[in-house]
Amino acid sequence: MQGIDDFLKQAAAIPGALGANLVDYTNGLTLGGAGKDSRDQHDAVAAADATDVIRATVEGITFTSPENDDALEDILVSTSRRYHLLRFVEIASGTRLFCHCRLDRDEANLAVARHQLRLITRTPVSP
């Protein structure tokens, strides 16, 4: 088990990361944030927008196949300057969380960032 602060510090330490937030996607609330670009108002808006993306993807059946054990792991949104990596996170209480990791496209290696975030999320988070 790892705490929220430890989780966020590890996610924000990924090379090229600008910041990371842990968000409850049932209500869009941010449980915490870390990183260079953590700004309260911006984080709240980003959490709400990312929550909409998560919900639309989870509620649809387009991207998964339950009969083939094909579960969602992460979602990538790219802009001209950033990657927004949305990764599902297991938490002890069963709350539905995701990590929103913001990456600088000029600094980050997307494959490495996805791999490191996958490793970080293997250990459940304790509230």
Please render the helix and strand layout as text.
Layout: E1 2-3, H1 4-12, E2 17-24, E3 29-35, H2 40-59, E4 74-78, E5 82-89, E6 97-104, H3 110-121, E7 125-126
Parallel strand pairs: 1-7
Antiparallel strand pairs: 2-3, 2-6, 4-5, 5-6
Describe what you observe in this structure.
The structure is a single chain. This protein has 127 residues and is an alpha+beta fold. It has a single domain (2-126), classed as 2-Layer Sandwich (Beta-Lactamase). It is 32% helix and 31% strand. The protein is built from three helices and seven strands. The strands form two sheets. It has a five-stranded antiparallel β-sheet with strand order 3-2-6-5-4, sandwiched between helices. It has a two-stranded parallel ribbon with strand order 1-7. The model has no long low-confidence stretch (mean pLDDT 86).
Radius of gyration over alpha carbons?
14 Å
Sequence of secondary-structure elements: EHEEHEEEHE
**CATH hierarchy: architecture:** 2-Layer Sandwich
Examine the coordinates and then state which fold CATH places here, giving the name of the CATH topology: Beta-Lactamase
**What is the subunit organization of this protein?**
single chain
Mean pLDDT: 86
Low-pLDDT runs? none
Strand content: 25-35%
Give the overall shape. Answer: globular
The CATH superfamily label reads Dynein light chain 2a, cytoplasmic
